[in-house]
Inverse folding.
């Protein structure tokens, strides 16, 4: 039951399990573009207060990860791994004025239980507590796989944002208050969507 799940700050002891969790959550993404256990250890040491793990008993079954960054919205194009290589440890800049949402992974067995919404709420709480400008993220667009032969990624994302098409990830993000600001090329290597992602922003207003 959802009430039995525990939401905790990330700890280094879960690094191996979280690496495996992300691989289960994103099976079509090149593992090189996902977090490794050493990177997750770095993240837990650098910014534990901004990263959350969901436990069923002692098993991690979901996580919402991110770092503080400086981000220029007038020059938004970036690859996830390139951004994570900037700044300090794990890509975290303690002086960054934005929270960059680098990952939300939910074990496929636990989806559609409200876990993702709770993780977004926890991230928003971090922004409010730290006085950050908001959340920026590159969002996966799994539904684009069915439309990539008939429209561009930009057209697809615009139609989802307008409610004309449904995408299980992007539509959920829009319902959670995120604004769609365009698309990111070659964000993560994922041949099912030709490596496109959405650019989303939640302003802390």
């Amino acid at each position: 039951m959802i009430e039995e799940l525990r939401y905790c700050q990330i700890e280094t002891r879960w690094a191996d399990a979280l690496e495996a969790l992300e691989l289960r959550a994103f099976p079509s993404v090149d593992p090189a573009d996902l977090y490794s256990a050493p990177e997750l250890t770095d993240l837990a040491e650098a910014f534990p207060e901004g990263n959350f793990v969901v436990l069923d008993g002692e098993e991690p079954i979901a996580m919402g990860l991110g770092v503080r960054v400086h981000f220029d919205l007038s020059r938004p194009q970036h690859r996830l791994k390139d951004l994570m290589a900037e700044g300090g440890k794990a890509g975290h800049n303690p002086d960054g004025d934005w929270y960059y949402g680098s990952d939300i992974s939910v074990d496929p067995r636990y989806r559609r239980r409200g876990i993702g919404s709770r993780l977004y709420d926890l991230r928003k709480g971090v922004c409010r507590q730290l006085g950050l400008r908001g959340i920026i993220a590159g969002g996966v667009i799994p539904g684009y796989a069915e439309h990539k032969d008939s429209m561009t990624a930009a057209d697809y994302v615009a139609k989802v944002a307008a409610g004309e098409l449904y995408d299980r990830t992007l539509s959920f993000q829009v319902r959670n208050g995120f604004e769609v600001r365009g698309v990111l090329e070659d964000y993560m290597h994922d041949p099912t969507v030709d490596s496109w992602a959405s650019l989303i922003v939640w302003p802390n207003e």
